[in-house]
Amino acid sequence: MTTYQDDIDAIRDLKQQVGAPWDAIDPEAVARMRAQNRFRTGLEIAQYTADIMRRDMAAYDADASVYTQSLGVWHGFIGQQKMISIKKHLKSTDKRYLYLSGWMVAALRSEFGPLPDQSMHEKTAVPALIEELYTFLRQADARELDLLFTKLDEARRAGDETAEEFIRSQIDSHETHVVPIIADIDAGFGNPEATYLLAKKMIEAGACAIQIENQVSDEKQCGHQDGKVTVPHADFIAKINAVRYAFLELGIDNGVIVARTDSLGAGLTQKLAVTTEPGDLGDRYNSFLDVDEVTAESLGNGDVVLTRGDTLVRPKRLASNLYRFRPGTGEERCVLDCITSLRSGADLLWIETEKPHIEQIAGMVDAIREVIPDAKLVYNNSPSFNWTLNFRQQAYDRLAAQGEDVSAYDRADLMNAVYDDTALGREADERIRSFQRDASARAGVFHHLITLPTYHTAALSTDDLAKGYFGDEGMLAYVAGVQRREIREGIATVKHQNMAGSDIGDNHKEYFAGDAALKAGGADNTMNQFG
């Protein structure tokens, strides 16, 4: 990235070459607009963010304490405000990403209206949200730089050369709000060609990392719903290949594929795997099937049978024409899924679990790392888990196993608020607080995300406001609960005209029309009430 002054000089030289027709063009204004439009295409973003993820993955391999994090977002504005908040409070976006949740696309972005997470929403909604997110993140860059340019002009008018030099250094070292997005492609929305076509659209919109799961595309369920149906490994590998081809075709040679397995909670398969010899991948998949031993004479009409050595077995088939796996095989199937995916071109793993339990995750990761030592996870810190209850139960069970007196606690009622300020409650909260750090150190979790937190925060904050505004508090509910907090906590949206781009537009008008520009940010703009 060239320095601000280098751009000004280059544009000034170009202006001189063109001559009189460009007399009205201000080289510094052009340099400002270029700085505010650093990324011109989604593919530039995809390459930039893929490089970030690869560096972060290498850093994690060297030191498991440097894990990465994201929050799921469902609108460009939400993603933008998240990254603005991170820069404000934590000073850097380093190791912080965005997550695009298929659940939230289905629930909040479908033209059909709210839908469950079953791949019924329009597939085009996914790349559209990626593009929207990056539009808002780029606008956050433009706004932040615009504020710096305003300060630069003020320093010049005041003749403060020290301040001017400092602000120039801030412009040259500006950290973008553009960060990697891990984007959910569900089970691929169809056959491998459909997966490839959608993956291309997602990458063209800016996605550097695509997460795909091993469920049947037309029977896809949320990872925390019942009725999940997996596919044989060969089917899933074809879709991993489809995503890789999409990356390579578009020139993102280091694009990241996250292979998710739902086998821990999936007890069904739609079809039997093809196998040519004992012990091959298809045979291993079929070995997990729940079967009955049969004889040729006992077979009924339409029965499907397999041979296991000299034994004839009949997979248990449901009325839905789905086949069942043996209970208790989920973890073993997850391990096989993960090893197979990494050997077939995936870069990161996602094991969807039913609870947040570090040792459960670590047990599977240990087995995977016996074969692939640098295996790494993306882990869903899901709102579908009752975190308070799970960790209080874990604390209770640990104390009981150590012979401690747990008679003061009712394990069946541990959500009760009476336990909030007890030793057990405090221990559980501390384990929740350190969960990401501990899981990254013990269980190979490179990236922690919460899939749909902003779905819940939007509902909670709206409930708070509606309860007061339509109740006795009236307007005070908004003023005390929202606006006053925005002012005192430095939330930039209090100047909502500025956040929406009004000042950027005013400056552009001045570039284009000079003193004749009709600007919105004059003395009568009520936004001036906020200083």
TrEMBL record:
Keywords: Lyase, Magnesium, Metal-binding
Binding note for cofactor: Can also use Mn(2+) ion.
Gene3D superfamilies tied to this protein: Phosphoenolpyruvate-binding domains
Cofactor dependence: Mg(2+)
Annotated positions binding substrate: S101, G102, W103, G223, H224, R260, N380, N381, S382, P383, S384, T451
Reactions accelerated catalytically: D-threo-isocitrate = glyoxylate + succinate
GO terms for MF: isocitrate lyase activity; metal ion binding
Residues forming the catalytic site: C222 (proton acceptor)
UniProt cross-references to InterPro entries, sorted A to Z: ICL/PEPM (IPR039556), Isocitrate_lyase (IPR006254), Pyrv/PenolPyrv_kinase-like_dom (IPR015813), Pyrv_kinase-like_dom_sf (IPR040442)
An annotated GO BP: carboxylic acid metabolic process
Pfam family, one: ICL
Binding site for Mg(2+): D184
NCBIfam families (alphabetical): PRK06498.1
Protein's recorded name: Isocitrase
Organism: Microbacterium telephonicum
